[in-house]
Amino acid sequence: MLRVPPVGAGFQRTMARMSQPSTTHVGASMPRVDGVAKVTGRARYVDDLDAPGAWHGITVRSTIAHGRLEAIETLDGFAATGAVLVTAADIAAHGGSNEIALIEHDQPALVAVGAPVMHVDEALALVAAPTRAAALAAAKLVVARVVPLPAVLSMADALTANEKLYGDDNIFKKFLIRKGHSDDATFDAVMASAAHIIEGEYDTSPQEQMYIEPQGMLAEWRDGKCFIIGSLQCPYYVHKAIKTLLQCGDDEVVISQAVTGGGFGGKEEYPSMLAAHAALLARKATHPVKMIYDRAEDIAATTKRHPAQIRSRLGVSAEGDIVAIDVDVVMDGGAYLTLSPVVLSRGVLHAAGPYKCATVRVAGRVVATNYPPHGAFRGFGAPQTTFAYERQIQKLARYLGEDGLTTRKRLALRSGDTTSTGQVLTFSVGTDAVLNAIANVAGAAPVRSGVSAKGSTVRRGRGVCFYFHGAGFTGSGEARLAGRAEIALLRDGTFEVRASSTDIGQGAITMFTQICAASLEVDPALVRVIDPSTANVPDSGPTVASRTCMVVGSVVETASRKLKARILEWGASHGMANQTVALCGAAMARAHYGADHAGADIAELVQYQPPPGIAWDDATYSGSAYPVYGWAACLVDVSVDLDTYEVSIDRCVQAIDVGKAINPIIVKGQIEGGTLQSLGWAVLENVIYKDGKVANANMTNCIVPTFADAPDLETILVEVPYPYGPSGAKGVGEIPMDGPAVAVANAVEDALGCSFDSLPISPEAVFASRSRWSFS
Amino acid sequence: MKIEMNVNGAARVVEASPYRRLLDVLREDLRLTGTKEGCGEGECGACTVSLDGETVNSCLVAVAQCHGRTVKTVEGLAAQQGDKEILHAVQTALVRCGGAQCGICTPGIAMCAADIVERELLHDQDLQQARVMVRELLAGNICRCTGYQLIVDAVIEAASEVGLQRRERASRRTP
Question: How close is the nearest chain A Cα to the Cα of B149, in Å?
Fold first, then answer.
């Protein structure tokens, strides 16, 4: 046995006791409701589902970055394989529309003959056969003839617009935020009045989500209807896309979620493409069709985090205050618009940082290139701009000779202050709580010079950062989404939560179970969250934007309370006053659901109501950008190996204000997972493109942190309640991704005495910086 | 080729090409879908099974190599007492400590963790050493959800529990 009992054991036992049924279940670490299914291997992911008679689908893809599709031909022997071939012509032949409906409808499901090929690995044709091997063999007999065109493979080339990929200027979307000034001349005058200007240019790299379950989908046609189940975050996004593709009615397409092995944004928009392909093949093959990407195809063809280039200027007064902030953000959207405008929006809305400043200008552009579309990834534009603003604040602290935490504490936004969009913060501002939490545990800075366990010479450093993350959809997005959820009392006296929010590992179904049980005041064992399918749940909005707990959770809370009131009222009028909700509910169900019951369920359907005072103006990009923000501070200690140039993360502490942790262990798991993705992005993750193609499309070379790369993570949960969240909870999914990368950059700067303004800070980058090292 | 294996305690015979991956034979022929494919190249460890007591990546094992040998998958990790399933200590600890999130890497991690616990590889280590050892021993299994912390917690907890039980049993036998 271990010589020392694990420190966690006592905490775990306390948690186990707390998870026993009690009047309130919120705030207790109830074990995940899907935990046993997952540790025993019983949980069925899409590739595990029984699909008798299913064929296998394969995608024929472009090998060039830009061109025009002249023809798709099959070689001799294709007919003999018995495989079916689907091209864009099959879509039109059935009266469909060749597009993947999202924000704009510019992306085709398959490139049509005569149409432009916009990126490497774009889908040109589809093949299905009874086995995967047969489908792969048949796909080799399909040849696409493409006439190449000049490719646009940098943001700079996109902006010169010599080759036009989108409109006249290759700009998918631009935003401009102005605070405290009306035109550039006024802004320039304020900037010119600054005693000193901190300037910087920052580059962040693309990042692969690397969910461990590759994308997969299973489609089947029965009685003229299309049924699709797969690995996905947003059933109603896929529903909309397939309805548009097939030009059919709401009820003719049913989208269901299988147990999903991670998403992180990577399964937000791309599953619509994969579902479209599976649906088209299944129709032509007249068999169910399964499409499961292998890892190389998944990395090569699906979305990544947008690379970004950010220029920033901080105008500083003689007293060390910020008088003006000027930020210019350019992101690479890739070949189609997809979600890029929204990613850019979140990026620019966070770009000025959580700091006091009366005069702010933020300009943002996202451009079209011939890379595969970049897309949703945890943080959604904010990690890129957070990297830039927290490097800037660190440079300011160094310029002033001030401790980094002191500078941040002095300049940070607090209740009563206004953000860059003029939003007055009135509640749930965790600034002091998170900064104090970090200061309290920081301890002594690491000794600068030393020798590592491996015997190498190392330089050590410490970095901090302070950051925020808007929870929920931007601006009036939540009002527009009008997410709904329903709680039903079933025949057997149990309760059902019906929501389209998916559990992709983040613990949504456990969290909903806890909120529902607590609001109904019943044992969580009486509550079941049903597997989301567009046939049986209302549209709660997508599973994105740190909104599932805060927004949909609050709808679940309201619906549960309404149902409780209705049940108790029924009980009171049926001689059951003062009885529990469970007992009254069981009696009410018996009375309502007769043997031949065919009417409506006893259920409460509730639509999300945004909190009062949320006003947003899209035209001027001003107002309440988000209903509330999460607040966080991070401390990182690093050692830089002066023999191998590797950066090791020795310590990482995150203090994050989550409003209320509905389930502390699940929240901790969310934070630590996001933290390590950010640390990985900082020092070892990267996606390398060569001529527009991903050159490292394997887990061997597209690396992510392993157990051995990760330090023990220290997580401090801070709870400054959000009055409109369930029990005070606000978003937590994305925020931990925003900060650690820049804390690492600040720490490496501290160790080596020179700036690191690009990601990743790989051994190659450290090697290249040698001439700039300055050891004090 | 006819391949005879003991899989999770039962004799199984499959007719398969000798070159097929053990992973595919388990998932497709024996419908043991608890073993997952994450990368197909031995990097992620999601397909980890135990072959004659050694943990292996089943995506890198040709099924011919398994003839006459014993394979244990995640489906065989829990014990069966009548109708009742008794979870392995690592399974219980993974649930209790929050070590499983999306769950796709979990079967592979459970197999490796069970190996660490059963072989008492952490025996006589202090807590800090034990945590470092767990990180080294599990470095072939990638999880993208947890940041690993809660999995390390779970393995440590399972190891101390199993160690404690074994010593209690031993002390009862030799008073």
Answer: 6
pLDDT value of position A19: 39
- The larger pLDDT score, comparing residue A5 to residue A559, is at A559
pLDDT digits (tens, 9 = 90+) for A176-216: 999 999 999 999 999 999 999 999 999 999 999 999 999 99
Cβ atoms A627, A615 nearer than 8 A: no
pLDDT at B158: 97
Same domain, A426 and A461: yes
Same domain, A290 and A356: no
pLDDT in tens, A432-446: 999 999 999 999 999
What is the ipTM, given to two decimal places? 0.98
DSSP 8-state code for residue A45: B
Sequence letter at residue A361: R
- Identify whether residues A637 and A555 lie together within a single domain: no
- Find the mean pLDDT for residues A107-119: 98
Contacts of B150 in chain A (CB under 8 A): 665, 668-669, 672
A707 to B159: CB separation less than 8 angstroms, yes or no: no
Residue A322 has pLDDT above 80, yes or no: yes
Neighbours of A162 (CB within 10 A): 10
**Chain pair A-B, CB pairs under 8 angstroms:** 212
Angle between helices A740-752 and A664-683 (to 10 degrees): 50
Residue A196 lies in a domain: no
Q: Is residue A657 part of a domain?
A: yes
**Domain holding A623: CATH number?**
3.30.365.10
**A29 CB within 8 Å of a chain B CB:** yes
Q: In chain B, which residues have their Cβ closer than 8 Å to the Cβ of A47? A: 27, 33, 37
3 state DSSP class of A757: coil
Is A461 found in the same domain as A483? no
Are A501 and A556 contained in the same domain?
Answer: yes
- Per-residue model confidence (pLDDT) at position A12: 39
Q: In this structure, are residues A663 and A729 in contact, taking their beta carbons and an 8 Å threshold?
A: no
Q: How many whole angstroms separate alpha carbon A564 and alpha carbon A603? A: 10
**A434 φ/ψ angles, rounded to the nearest 5 degrees:** -75, -40
For residues A297 and A342, membership in a common domain is answered with no
Nearest Cβ partner for B98 among A6, A212, A665: A665
The residue of A3, A19, A38 whose CB has the most chain B CBs within 10 angstroms, and thus the best one to mutate to test that interface, is: A38
Is A261 in the same domain as A118? yes
Taking chain A, what is the end-to-end CA distance rounded to the nearest angstrom? 47
Kindly list the residues from chain A whose CB atom is less than 8 angstroms away from the CB atom of residue B77: 40
Q: How many structural domains are present in chain A?
A: 3
Distance from CA of A605 to the nearest CA of B (A): 28
- When mean pLDDT is compared across A17-31, A757-771, B33-47, B116-130, the lowest value belongs to A17-31
**pLDDT for residue A125 is more than 80:** yes
The pLDDT tens digits of the residues spanning A566-577 come to: 999 999 999 999
Q: Name residues 632-671 of chain A within 8 A of B (Cβ).
A: 665-666, 668-669, 671
Q: Are strands A360-368 and A322-334 parallel, antiparallel or unpaired?
A: parallel
Segment-wise mean pLDDT, segments of 10 residues, chain B, 175 residues: 97 97 98 98 98 98 98 97 96 98 98 97 94 98 98 97 90 77
Is-contact B122 A1, C-beta < 8 A?
A: no
Encode pLDDT of A129-181 as tens digits.
Answer: 999 999 999 999 999 999 999 999 999 999 999 999 999 999 999 999 999 99
Query: Closest to B126 (Cβ–Cβ): which among A3, A675, A713?
Result: A3
What is the domain class of B84-173 according to CATH? mainly alpha
Residues A511 and A594 in one domain: yes
- Class of the CATH-defined domain B2-76: alpha beta
pLDDT value for A201: 98
* Sign of the four-CA dihedral B166, B170, B173, B175: negative
Q: What is the pTM of this model?
A: 0.96
Looking at residue A211, its amino acid is: Y
